[in-house]
Amino acid sequence: MAATVNLSSTPSNPISKLPSFSLNSPQKTSFSLFPNSSSFPSKPFSHSLKSQFITTSSKNPISDLFPPNKSGPEGDILSSFSDDDDKPREECGVVGIFGDPEASRLCYLALHALQHRGQEGAGIVAVNNNVLQTVTGVGLVSEVFNESKLDQLPGEMAIGHVRYSTAGSSMLKNVQPFVAGYRFGSVGVAHNGNLVNYRALRAMLEDNGSIFNTSSDTEVVLHLIAISKARPFLLRIVDACEKLEGAYSMVFVTGDKLVAVRDPYGFRPLVMGRRSNGAVVFASETCALDLIEATYEREVYPGEVLVVDKKDGVQSLCLMPHPEPKQCIFEHIYFAMPNSLVFGRSVYESRRVFGEILATEAPVDCDVVIAVPDSGVVAALGYAAKAGVPFQQGLIRSHYVGRTFIEPSQKIRDFGVKLKLSPVRAVLEGKRVVVVDDSIVRGTTSSKIVRLIKEAGAKEIHMRIASPPIIGSCYYGVDTPSAEELISNRMSVEEIRKFIGCDSLAFLPFDSLKKMLSTDSPKFCYACFSGKYPVMPREVKVKGVGDSMDDGLNTPLASIDGHWIKGPPNFDLEKEIDPLYQESKI
């Protein structure tokens, strides 16, 4: 049976010292049925289970059920704040390690490197003598784990997860990895992504007697594995994944195996590396490999299952026939760390080129180029270099702001943004300033940033955005607002410029983005820019708690209950989404 230890959100003492890691000669026990991506079939990909729900629209149906609050908590002394205010949020990061005596400690360090992918929960499952042991908790990795917690996780195999919470008040029970026991043993899973047919699958399973403990779509995967008739365990995973629609990059552990799986479209990243002692490592980004001194080998291919055990080493097989990949472009725009390789491309180089394109296609006379830190910095460097204008730090970001703060009873305007960003008057005063940011979502934070820069004495403010306008919500593992809240879905560029109060505004042209990606362009998902979804959403997305921060909006009551609901029965999804796409081109 798997032992589970659930922690409270009370911070633990951080690890002061980690034992040294052994570095033995690499083992040579790998085997691959598909040594390269060209070995995979390219037939159209189909699902064996189809949902009955064909519903959604560019308008949020929740507002018909629960009217949004009209007044904000002006009198509240205790307020909520996110240092990623008014940005899409990546919901998860995953790690898997096989064959290292300090697997859980390496997993802990790798999760540190992936902390930007989720800050509200973390967990590790380690395997020792065929027993799965779990530690999970709410908070940052350094708050959840300490020496004593990691001492509870011995073994040479471990998986880990960091999470951005989007569902309800009972966050701890939704913190991954999940562990379940069934008649053939125990299995643990950590998942990055979203299943667009989650409600349909859950309803089917509940009709057949399944009992769910969480509101997470990941739990569906464990139930599907448990009821599968396939043998051996690997084929149970394949059987379960054939029923899934949407985005999933997952790592599994059993008593003797580590398994990595990526959905046929490859929406979310997953890479494989190896340490010098032969230990195999899977992670959402290569920055996690770098920290634990693992060498990057390759991506887990879309539609691939990789199995690692002592007997056969690394085995690879095709999950199912799959279409052309549709990798999330926002990994390169915002989510991933600049020092990562994602989808085989340098994130730093992508962002630098985005800035160069903006300088070429939306030039303006200016004295200084600044960035909205941190994700706008590399694009700003590219813009400044191409424009021949100095880059300077005009905004300083505080990295010590928590999610809750005490505000004075006399309300301070733009308090949340001022806590996070401080303008440098010596850089800005009397200057014509280009401000480079990665994206505009609702526009509320951008307007506050413009106001801060004006108050610091800037003569002109020219906003340059290193992504195309976002007009559609994401259904593949990114927490974005509903389409009606996306400012680019409601306003023209000129209207947005007036709303945020800058002198000029330009976005990265969509066509230029695709041209920059060259032959890789068809392999990316642009649904948030075009409204064209590679896998059609079958359930309506609902905002999660924490989605609405100090940005002038209030979270509707419906968000308290989580991710997805069935849509109205008469909606035709393609008819609803296509006008959204057509309007965006006008």
TrEMBL record:
Residues 92-311 form the Glutamine amidotransferase type-2 domain. Its cofactor is [4Fe-4S] cluster. It comes from the Eukaryota. NCBIfam families: purF. Pathway: Purine metabolism; IMP biosynthesis via de novo pathway; N(1)-(5-phospho-D-ribosyl)glycinamide from 5-phospho-alpha-D-ribose 1-diphosphate: step 1/2. In the C-terminal section; belongs to the purine/pyrimidine phosphoribosyltransferase family. This is amidophosphoribosyltransferase. The keyword S-adenosyl-L-methionine does not apply. GO terms for biological process: 'de novo' IMP biosynthetic process; purine nucleobase biosynthetic process. Its EC number is 2.4.2.14. Keywords: Glutamine amidotransferase, Glycosyltransferase, Iron, Iron-sulfur, Metal-binding, Purine biosynthesis, Transferase. CDD domains: GPATase_N, PRTases_typeI. It is an enzyme of class 2 (transferase). The keyword Metal-binding applies. Pfam families: GATase_7, Pribosyltran. GO terms for molecular function: amidophosphoribosyltransferase activity; iron-sulfur cluster binding. Signal peptide: none annotated.
